[in-house]
Automatic annotation (TrEMBL):
<keyword id="KW-0597">Phosphoprotein</keyword>
<feature type="active site">
    <location>
        <position position="294"/>
    </location>
</feature>
<dbReference type="GO" id="GO:0008984">
    <property type="term" value="F:protein-glutamate methylesterase activity"/>
</dbReference>
<comment type="similarity">
    <text>Belongs to the CheB family.</text>
</comment>
<dbReference type="Pfam" id="PF00072">
    <property type="entry name" value="Response_reg"/>
</dbReference>
<dbReference type="InterPro" id="IPR008248">
    <property type="entry name" value="CheB-like"/>
</dbReference>
<dbReference type="GO" id="GO:0005737">
    <property type="term" value="C:cytoplasm"/>
</dbReference>
<dbReference type="InterPro" id="IPR001789">
    <property type="entry name" value="Sig_transdc_resp-reg_receiver"/>
</dbReference>
<keyword id="KW-0145">Chemotaxis</keyword>
<keyword id="KW-0378">Hydrolase</keyword>
<dbReference type="GO" id="GO:0006935">
    <property type="term" value="P:chemotaxis"/>
</dbReference>
<comment type="function">
    <text>Involved in chemotaxis. Part of a chemotaxis signal transduction system that modulates chemotaxis in response to various stimuli. Catalyzes the demethylation of specific methylglutamate residues introduced into the chemoreceptors (methyl-accepting chemotaxis proteins or MCP) by CheR. Also mediates the irreversible deamidation of specific glutamine residues to glutamic acid.</text>
</comment>
<dbReference type="GO" id="GO:0000156">
    <property type="term" value="F:phosphorelay response regulator activity"/>
</dbReference>
<dbReference type="Pfam" id="PF01339">
    <property type="entry name" value="CheB_methylest"/>
</dbReference>
<keyword id="KW-0963">Cytoplasm</keyword>
<feature type="domain" description="CheB-type methylesterase">
    <location>
        <begin position="160"/>
        <end position="352"/>
    </location>
</feature>
<dbReference type="GO" id="GO:0050568">
    <property type="term" value="F:protein-glutamine glutaminase activity"/>
</dbReference>
């Protein structure tokens, strides 16, 4: 069996030692080198040709993000960010993901030894996912700003004004960028949107705030009991499942601290199942990049309830796990490249609206 060959890049000798022990304790992976700064890492990448890189942000000689940008432009490879900054500064985390990092682990701020040991399974699983991820050579843009709000939206054959239609979205690894690419294309009158993205609770509000600045629709972390109105998207907080409920004529958000489903809270299956039950044929399901099978059975239930469902295609997924499982389960109506998703979803929302008027 070919082991996953990992290069550790961190300026702390203790962290390098701990990560080496954690990774080498796994039967399917090994540390082939450890670098204290990006300049040494650059030489080791050339010499050792690792499968995956772990990367800190705050390092001497070159900032981790500067190094990541150069690396993904010149020699794209899977990168897992492991840094205290990833928790302290969500902007740094999202910038790293934007630059091409596959995922992140927040390094403990105190008691690093026992803290990192507690993260052993998480680090190992994310390295396995990173090894399987689809890496793209990035053409880089400057830091995001609100200029996107003024970009033209997809041209629709008919304005969407009904509050009955809903877009229900699930995503995991690679989903932060996929969701951004999807949501920035949506017009202010698009159907209400509920989103379950696998993400720690320390990041979901920052993620929602970031998208709200970029998009013409309103994006917020769900608090529970909000009306789901056109032009509004609600992202599940990292500590709770997000569900759809009904109050009279209104669709509303609901939060649950129930047990994890498919090892996740929020779970895509929980959201999709609530949409199947409450909205049925008035909902449009979207499943995006991510590892595992969360969302597959829920999307099948949506399909059986009359919803029309889309899956992101393999070529544009960072990890083609969740969409593949949903397709195999039989709940997907169309498999779509990410760049076409907004147009296709809006077109279907419009056609559903026209049919509803005729009935």
């Amino acid at each position: 069996m070919h082991k996953i060959r990992v290069l550790v890049v961190d300026d702390s000798a203790l962290v390098r030692k701990m990560l080496t022990e954690i990774i080498n304790s796994q039967a399917d992976m090994e540390v082939i080198g450890a670098a204290p700064d990006p300049l040494i890492a650059r030489e080791m990448i050339r010499e050792l040709n690792p499968d995956v890189l772990t990367l800190d942000v705050e390092m001497p000689k070159m900032d981790g993000l500067d190094f990541l940008e150069k690396l993904m432009r010149l020699r794209p490879m899977p990168v897992l960010m492991i840094s205290t900054l990833t928790e302290r500064s969500s902007d740094v985390t999202f910038r790293a993901l934007e630059l091409g990092a596959i995922d992140f682990v927040a390094k403990p701020k105190i008691d690093i030894v026992s803290g990192l040991q507690a993260y052993t399974d998480q680090i190992a699983n994310k390295l396995r996912i990173a090894k399987q991820a689809r890496i793209k050579r990035h053409s880089f843009v400057t830091q995001p700003n609100t200029v996107t709000r003024n970009e033209a939206s997809p041209i629709l054959p008919k304005r969407i004004s009904s509050t009955e239609k809903l877009i229900i979205v699930g995503a995991s690894t690679g989903g932060t960028e996929a969701l951004k690419d999807f949501l920035i294309q949506l017009p202010p009158d698009c159907p209400g949107i509920l989103i379950a993205q696998h993400m720690p609770e320390t990041f979901t509000k920052s993620f929602a705030d970031r998208l709200d600045k970029l998009c013409r629709i309103n994006v917020a972390e769900a608090q529970g009991d909000e009306r789901v109105l056109p032009g509004h998207a609600f992202i599940a907080p990292g500590h709770s499942h997000l569900l759809l409920k009904r109050s009279g004529a209104n669709y509303m958000t609901e939060l649950s601290r129930g047990e994890p489903v498919n090892r996740h809270r929020p779970s895509v299956d929980v959201l999709f199942r609530s949409a199947a039950k409450i909205a049925g044929k008035n909902s449009i399901g979207v499943i995006m990049t991510g590892m595992g099978k969360d969302g597959a059975q829920g999307m099948l239930e949506m399909h059986k309830a009359g919803a029309y469902n889309f899956a992101q295609d393999e070529a544009t997924c960072v990890v083609y796990g969740m969409p593949k499982e949903a397709v195999m389960a039989g709940g997907v109506d169309e498999i779509i490249p990410l760049q076409d998703m907004a147009r296709k979803v809006l077109s279907k929302a419009t056609s559903i609206g026209v049919q509803a008027v005729r009935v």
